[in-house]
Specification:
Blueprint lengths: L5 E10 L2 E11 L4 E5 L6 H8 L7 E6 L2 E2 L5 H11 E4 L11 H11 L4 H14 L15 H12 L6 E5 L7 H18 L2 E5 L3 H4 L4 E6 L2 E5 L5
Parallel strand pairs: 3-8, 3-9, 6-7, 7-8
Antiparallel strand pairs: 1-2, 1-4, 4-5, 9-10
Helix pairs in contact: 3-4, 3-5, 5-6
GO biological process, one term: lipoprotein localization to outer membrane
GO molecular function, one term: ATP hydrolysis activity
InterPro entries: AAA+_ATPase (IPR003593), ABC_transporter-like_ATP-bd (IPR003439), ABC_transpr_LolD-like (IPR015854), MacB-like_ATP-bd (IPR017911), P-loop_NTPase (IPR027417)
Length: about 230
């Protein structure tokens, strides 16, 4: 069996006396998708931030691609984030002065990819997200769903191995949410990514390979019911 691309080992996050999560054990294998359920304030975002090396655990270890990360320098953690991880948030955070194509090409340009190659990859990803006719539109000219699909394409621009998404459809109406989630899952599976997606929507969660829920600061895997 292949080694996990992401593994959390006895992870905890505390703020003083406040325990957000503790004794978290989790592993994600290549090409696997996992839903993370829990009400607002349950610790979903904190757990994703720890897994994505945006926040340090109070205890435990985060392994990415088999590498322990707790003792790495900030520069080493930043390198892993840029080379291995993609992030999608509830709000798209697109740069308003750039087109959809420009927003998706930008992370690649920052990483040193030549402009022509970066724009070709941006066009490929946006087309896969159903935005092939909207490449030159700025965020203000796109609908909410189109903006979020652009943000998803941007998250995959540097060819990450792991996608971490925090309520990626939480700011959308149900119909648009379905369209965006379909596009997200299809692209994740087409690109062979592993993904952890935090959501409050159990209907969407059931479409993923595994489902986890945070209960009383612990992470519990739950049996999937038929979709």
């Amino acid at each position: 069996m292949s080694e996990p691309v992401l593994r959390l080992e006895d992870v905890a996050r505390r703020y003083g006396d406040l325990v957000v999560v503790e004794h978290i054990e989790f592993s994600l294998r290549p090409g696997e998708t996992a839903a993370l359920l829990g009400p607002s304030g349950s610790g979903k975002s904190s757990l994703l931030h720890i897994a994505g090396l945006l926040e340090k655990a109070s205890a435990g270890e985060v392994h990415i691609m088999g590498r322990a990360t707790s003792k790495l320098s900030d520069a080493e953690r930043t390198h892993i984030r840029r080379a291995t991880l993609g992030f999608v948030y509830q709000f798209h955070h697109l740069l308003p002065e750039f087109s959809a194509l420009g927003n998706v090409a930008l992370p690649q340009l920052i990483a040193g990819v030549k402009k022509k190659k970066a724009e070709a990859e941006a066009k490929r990803l946006l087309t896969l997200m159903g935005l092939g006719e909207r490449l030159e539109h700025q965020p203000g000219q796109l609908s909410g769903g189109e903006q979020q699909r652009t943000a998803i394409a941007r998250a995959l621009a540097n060819n990450p191995k792991i996608l971490l998404a925090d309520e990626p459809t939480g700011n959308l109406d149900p119909k648009t949410s379905d369209v965006v989630f379909d596009a997200l899952l299809n692209l994740v599976r087409k690109e062979g990514l592993s993904a952890v997606i935090a959501t409050h929507d159990q209907r969407l969660a059931k479409r993923m390979d595994r489902v986890f829920v945070i209960r009383e600061q612990r992470l519990v895997e739950v049996r999937k019911e038929p979709v």
